[in-house]
């Protein structure tokens, strides 16, 4: 199967998921039936781009919540790593531990990557905006972290104005 035919599309149902957050609590897609959900995938705790993205989403958390949206970050890091990351940068968002890459694979962000001539499997930085009905409202792939939270917020405002 080609990679292009394997991509999720706007309007499709969001893949169901369940994973533990930094506190060991099980978090499922079904937990967000009354909310919009910003589900963002990032490669690794404590790296420059991932830190910037997590801090930006934390800054925007109250603005998103005012619009009825929740934010969840997902990476292959452990719960312990997430706790340290959250404490180090005073993050206010929930982070899911996807050590087995099950959520990453469901959202098709676990892909072959290249860096300095080496190929490896890893997370392609991506964000999914999911409606309260669990439909994919918008998808960002190969995200550039600077200003990304603002772009997601603007898209949510735009979609809510149309609704």
Short description:
The protein has 163 residues and is α+β, with helices and mostly antiparallel strands. It contains 4 helices and 9 strands, in the order E-E-E-H-E-H-E-H-E-E-E-E-H.
What does the largest sheet look like?
Answer: 7 strands, mixed
- Extended strand count: 9
- Sequence of secondary-structure elements: EEEHEHEHEEEEH
Contiguous uncertain segments of 5+ residues: 1-5
* Individual helix count: 4
Give the strand order of the largest sheet, numbering strands 1, 2, ... along the chain.
Answer: 2-1-5-4-3-8-9
Shape: globular
Strand content: 25-35%
Average pLDDT: 93
Helix content: 25-40%
Span between N and C termini? 36 Å
- Coarse structural class: alpha+beta
Please describe what this structure looks like:
- This protein is α+β, with helices and mostly antiparallel strands and 163 residues long.
- Helix content is 31%, strand content 29%.
- It has a 7-stranded mixed β-sheet with strand order 2-1-5-4-3-8-9. A two-stranded antiparallel sheet has the order 6-7.
- The longest helix is centred in the middle third of the chain and has 19 residues.
